[in-house]
Every structure is written in C-alpha cells, then in structure tokens.
Predict the 3D structure of the following.
Amino acid sequence: MSTLAFLNPDVPGIPAAVAPEALAGVPVLPPYSDAALGFAAALSDALMHAPQARAYPELAALAFWLRRANLTRLRDDVLRQWQARTDAPVQLPRGTVLHFAPANVDTIFVYSWMLALLSGNRNIVRVSTRESPQAAILVETVRRLLADPAHQAIAQRTLLVRYAADEAVTARLSAVCDVRVIWGGDDTVAAIRRIALPPTATEICFPNKYSLALVSAAGWLAAPPARQQEWAHAFHNDAYWFGQMACSSPRLVLWIGERGLAREASSGFWERLGSIVAARAPALGDADYVNKLVAADALAIETHAEVHTEGSNALVRVWLDEPALHAARHCGAGLFFESSMPALAGLSALLDRSVQTVVYAGFDAAELRRFVADCLPRGIDRIVPFGKALAFAPVWDGLDLTHAFLREVSVS
C-alpha cells in the first residue's frame, strides 16, 4: 500500500493537510477572485526572484505566464465572451478538481492547477514521484506561499499530495472530485480511467501526443542569415527543453518543396542548429545516447533511411525517403526524423489523432489556416511559429480549459 504524503505546510489555524473528503465542506471561490489572482501573481514573483529558478528556462516561462497582467488579460477575455451573450448564464466553479501531473514536464501541473484555481475550484494535485530540481523548486516555492497568512484562502482549498501509483489511493481521491485531469502517457491514462468517478464528475485526459516541424524549403533559403539564425535558436528551445519529451516538442522535421531544395535547406538548418546545441551542451544521460543510436540504426535497417550526426550525439537526425511519424521509435533527447514532400496537401495523410502541435517557419499563417480548412485533417490541435511549441495556452489539445473548469447555470 502506498503512503499518501501531504505536501501542504503547517499554517496557523489551517490543518497541515485537510483530509480529501473534507475539502467539499470548504466553499468554492468566485471565478477570477482577487485571492486566486493574488496567489498566482505571488508565485510568479517568487519564481522570478528565486536564484535557483533562473537556471531553468521552463520555470522562467511559467513565471512569465503567471504575471498578473497576463492573467488579468485572460480574465478580461473570458468575461467579454460571457457578456457578449444576451442570455449569458451564471458561471460557477465545478467544485473539486483532481490533477495528475506528468513525469516528463515538471511545470505542467501548475498551469492546470492555476486555471482551475482561477475558475474558483478547490484543487487536489498529485505531484509526480519522479524527483527533479525544477519540481523541487516549484513544490518548495508553493509550500512557502501557502504558509503565508495572506494566501490562507488558497491554502484552505488546496491539497498537494505525492504517492507511488496505487489504485486504492487514486480511488479515494477520485471519489471526492468533480473533475479529474490526467496528464500522462497512454498507459497512465488507461490505468486511471479504470478507476470510477462519481456519477456527476467529468474527466479530461491529455495522453501521448506527437509533434512535428513544418519548414518551407524556399522560405528558408530566401531568408537572410539573421532570420535563419533566429529560427534555429527558436527551434532549439522547442526541442531541447524537457529533453524533447514534451508532447509539443517537434520530433519530425518536414521540408515542403522540391527534394533538391529541401536537401539544400536542410543542410544549412542543421549546421546552424548543431552549433547552437554544441554551445549549450544539453544535459543528456548515457541511456539517452544509447537509445538514440539504437532507434536510428533500427530505422536505417528497416527503411530507406540515412543517419546523420551533427558533430556530437547530442543531435542525431534520420532522413526518411518516405515521410512517417515512427512514434514508437522516438526516444527524445535530440533525435529528429526528417523528410520532404512537394506540397502541403500531402501532409494530411500523416495527421492522425496523435498529432498535437505543428511548429512552422517560412510559411504565412493564412496559408496554413487555408490548409487546415481545406484538408480537414484528423490530427493537429495547434499550429504555431518556431519558438512557441512549449508556450502554454488555456486552449490545449483543442480543449478550452477556462470553460472545462466551470459549469453554466441558465437563468431565464
């Protein structure tokens, strides 16, 4: 039996860890309350000024997203949508939201929790048992803020827990929630979904997804060197944060254009990216290097593929004669599959429901919008420029979380 470890701090007048079953007795807050916005702003400020957090760009990105100005804009956008309806219903929190954080992206549980908190909900957050410096900084920063009497309203409505996978514990937490949010791989989602929810509860799942990069060969070659360098830096951030294991990290690079142009553009792109990777020296483990070589060699044996290493094993690319996702073969850590196709229309065949994000360079956004409208692809949840793959937005995997954490009461 796993031990359910409560991570809430001791706060005068507040139990160190209110039992999950007791959370329902704590009233919800109104959506976008001053208490929730103030806590988010305090977390942003704490992360921005924490010396140990500055070493991790994903923590800086989280702090930037949590700025009061950004969340105030989010609130104002949502309020405008509500007020635009002549029969506008009353928006209320759903109650208690149970979040299962993924192991591969340390910051995602905070985005999920903050959106549910801003919607006025009580929250139970199961923090991953996998230790990392980023997760340790986050948890300790949150604990310190919850211990501040200024944030008592949030501490009363928040339960942070950590436990090894255990169906009995998950069932206990699931029994008291109104919304269950699962961030994880397909196996994790399947295992948790087997555990019953209350009849009135809803569930949101974010399973395995695959992302790719789309580059116009002609657009790359026509771009000035400074622009090419900007794209290479932006792509580096998209791919190498989180060891390329975030669902939105690009794994396949597709060049659109005639094959000769694609090969020419590819050569210049990887040369620039290779220099950036060498300068930044990503922290990869021995297993990462071995897994990449095994995956690349296996594809070279099974398909018509060429394996290229850009100076070091920190960047390995596999050119495929026939574009394919090969999702099961991909292990992250700077491994890139690569291919080309003459026109955007050919992309549609690759886009199954597992495809989440497409990052692009050398295209006009209107052209990509027309492609989606005309081809009606089964996959793709978002298309964003290079450098925006990991930028979190309230609409994720095609689902608007600002609405999912609320219920509507119609009054007529």
